[in-house]
Design goal:
Elements: H1 2-26, H2 45-50, H3 57-81, E1 90-93, H4 99-106, H5 110-117, H6 135-144, E2 148-151, E3 177-179, E4 183-188, H7 194-202, E5 219-224, E6 230-235, H8 243-251, E7 255-261, H9 268-280, E8 284-289, H10 298-306, E9 320-323, H11 332-346, E10 349-351, E11 357-366, E12 370-379, E13 382-383, E14 387-390, E15 393-401, E16 407-408, E17 410-411, E18 416-422, E19 431-435, H12 438-481, H13 487-514, E20 516-523, H14 526-537, E21 546-554, H15 559-568, E22 571-575, H16 581-590, E23 594-597, H17 600-614, E24 618-637, E25 640-655, E26 659-664, E27 667-672, E28 674-679, E29 682-683, E30 686-688, E31 692-697, E32 708-717
Parallel strand pairs: 1-2, 4-6, 4-7, 7-8, 8-9, 20-21, 20-22, 22-23
Antiparallel strand pairs: 3-10, 5-6, 11-12, 11-19, 12-18, 13-17, 14-15, 14-19, 15-16, 15-18, 24-25, 24-32, 25-30, 25-31, 26-27, 26-32, 28-29, 28-31
Helix pairs in contact: 1-3, 4-5, 8-9
Protein name: Translation initiation factor IF-2, mitochondrial
Coiled coil: 450-481
Subcellular location: Mitochondrion
Length: 727
Amino acid sequence: MNRGLLLRFENLVQLHGACWQLRALSSRKVYGAQWKPVPLSARPVASLLLHPQLWPKHRLISAALSQCRHLATKEETKKKKKKIPPTRGEVEIRQKMTVEELAQAMGKDIDHVYEALLYTDINLDSVEPDSILHEDHIKMVVQKSGMKYKSAKLKEEKERKNTDAVKRQVVSYPAVLTPRPPVVTILGHVDHGKTTLLDSLRKTQVASMEAGGITQHIGAFIVHMPSGEKITFLDTPGHAAFSAMRARGTNVTDIVILVVAAEDGVMQQTIESIQHAKNAGVPLILAINKCDKPEADPERVKKELLAHDVVCEEFGGDVQAVNISALKGENLMVLAEATVALAEMLELKADATGLVEGTIIESRKDKGKGPLTTAIIQRGTLRKGCVLVAGKTWAKVRFLFDENGKAVDAASPGIPVEIMGWKECPSAGDEILEVESEQRAQEVVAWRTYAEQQEKMKKDLEVIEAKQKEHRLEYEKKQQKLAHLTWRQRKAVLYKANKHLMFSRPKERTEMDENTLSLIVKGDVDGSVEAILNILDSYDCEDECKLDIVYFGMGDISENDVSLAEAFNGVIFGFSVKANESIKKLADKKGIKIKLHNIIYKLIEDLKDELNSRLPPSVVETTIGEASVLDTFSVTVGKNKIPVAGCRVHKGLLDRKMKFKLIRNRDVIWKGCLSSLKHHKDDVQVIKTGMDCGLSLDKNLEFSIGDEIICYEEKEVQQTTSWDPGF
């Protein structure tokens, strides 16, 4: 006992000596001689008090250092616990702030932030000081603390210099301008004879190359007149699906020839073609086709066009009207001369010098040549080696081809030409501009890509802000409903409200996959893909089956398309493209459908059939027989009393195998099967019209005199989509 007390006393003495030693170290004074290690057992305890220099050296240093560490830690703790001055005015917030950063910005401690977060839907068990808070939660914490917030200013990005390429200024010097051939677009309704007219003009069989005799995309040709003049013709599709392509053809043209069939008169695409010409400010020439038919009535066509502000010369207007038969070649030279005469009146001239300018009519991908574009040159002379920019791609011209596929060295204004050398396929309708070098072309493309990204970011930000506002309002409404509850009670209520969703998510996901048709769309040219996408944009039956366009592009069906269709459980639709045998075998192996078409309305019909197959079948009830309850009674089976109805069949028959329903006061009160059907005392399967019977239901339900018993059959019928693509 005495020994234990002695050891404790010894420890106290050592601590006392260490304190004196620290004081000496702090004042940098050294007292007495050097310390000498002396065994404790050799000195009495009293001498330790009187002679601190006799303490062991290693114990003194250890005690001193530990005391220093203790004091340092204490100072740091004091600094940490030092109150942060409260923030006055607005709190500067930014996105992705942590709890600790928010507390510092507000001039509060972390516990205050935690307390304010109780008013949000955050699970506080998972929140740490370094946890990142959502912007909405940051704003709510500041508001709950009675403060205002302002967004921190982002570092302003250095404004990028506009390096885009622009058109040259219009030159009006007569010496520079040279005559050019007119660009003529043939417009009209589908199957009114536009392609046949071009066939006759240039003595080639374009229609034989087009599927079903319907032009699917723009063709550009030069027609050489006997008098030596040249006319550049653009043949646009008349089908309803190709509205955008007709508009594009009108925008680069000088004259529009409106083809109207004499026996059909003005149709839907005829009116649309007139509108395109008016919007572009292009003069019209009326070609009334199929005048060789007995039912042809050219005068009726001219009168119908008056309602659309197309006034022919014989009615006092300025529109030339020519009656033709494209199939038999009648009056075609009269139409060509009228076109040349109008072109002379317009005095069409262009500058064939300087940098090239033009417009892309169509673009496509060729397996051997790569991306190709059909273009009309409007200024300058295009030659091999020119560096061009169109949209967000560029080209160094490697080869030029005419409409017959022959290589040419140059193309002057008004001449259609096919250009080879593009890095990627530009979009139809894009403007072509020549630049000085490849480096300059890359600079232009980089700027256009950057400008598009900035515009997209701006739109995305607007959408995000609108969604955030919508979600915030919805959340505030929910919070107002739960405002009277404690935090734990709110969590319990929210859990109960969302519990059923947690269990239904896998099922919902499966149903969503079944009711979604994923598409991969491939076309031969950019305009064809554009037309298909425009049709798909009109799809408005998302509640029946969701339509999801996974990918679209040009070129034949590839292995990547099949892999993409497999990943999304989709269908590949190809328009005027091919799929080789290896691709077809791969698709069959993976269970992927490849649907190839050459006529657009057949592709849309096939698409509608595919949509119909994704819809769940509807159940249709077919009535087989009807009977009336004339009397009611009950029979005892064992210990149970079973209600029985005495009925008479007045229409059709009652078949026990079928389903039945009980109607009372025009309301269906039961549906199911019969437990028994008797004629007199015999069990029967069928009761015919005019016969009496007794029947009981599979449910213990009381009958009333006057009830109707309906015997019916259920059949599953395949639903059809209500989507109307417009043709």
